[in-house]
Amino acid sequence: MANPTMTLIASVTVGSGGAATIDFTSIPSTYTDLCLLTSFRSNRANNVDDIYITLNGSTSSFSNKYLQGNGSSASSGSVARYYGSCPAASGSTTSTFSNDLLYMPNYAGSAYKSFSGDTVMEYNGNPAYAALNAGLWSNTAAITSLSLSMTGSFVQYSTATLYGISNT
Asked: Would you tell me how many other CB atoms lie within 10 Å of the CB of residue 127?
C-alpha cells in the first residue's frame, strides 16, 4: 500500500489592502493530486460570499453540484466554477473566517479534471453553515495554474495553502 505525502507548493496570506484574487502559478506536474486548504473572509456587505475557481486561465467548461445547509434549512443545486463560500464582513460574526478544502485528483493527467470541496463557517444569521460540492472541469490539459475569486474581495489574513500529494 502506498504512503501518500503532502508537500507544500505555495501559501498566500492576504495583506492589509485585501485582494481581488489569489493566484497559484507554475504548479508542477510532479504530484498525483492537489489539495488546497483555505481560510477566507470577504469584504462584501452580505452574509455569505461565494468563491470561484479558474484553472489555467479558463472560466469555461465547468460544472458543479452542491449540497448546503445553514442550521435551519438545506438546499442543493448546480452552478459553474463554484468552489466554496465564506463569511462576508457585514452580517457575519466578527473576525470569523471559513475553513475550506478543495481536493483535485489526477490534476496532471489527460482526463477531465474533477474536484471536490468542503466548506464550513458561521455567521450571525444562523449558528453554522456547511457545504459540500463536486465539480468537473471538462478539459484534458494538466493544471498548471489556479486562481480564486469572489464577488467581493478577500480581506486581510485570508489564507490559501496549496499542497501536492504524492502517492508513493
From this structure: 11
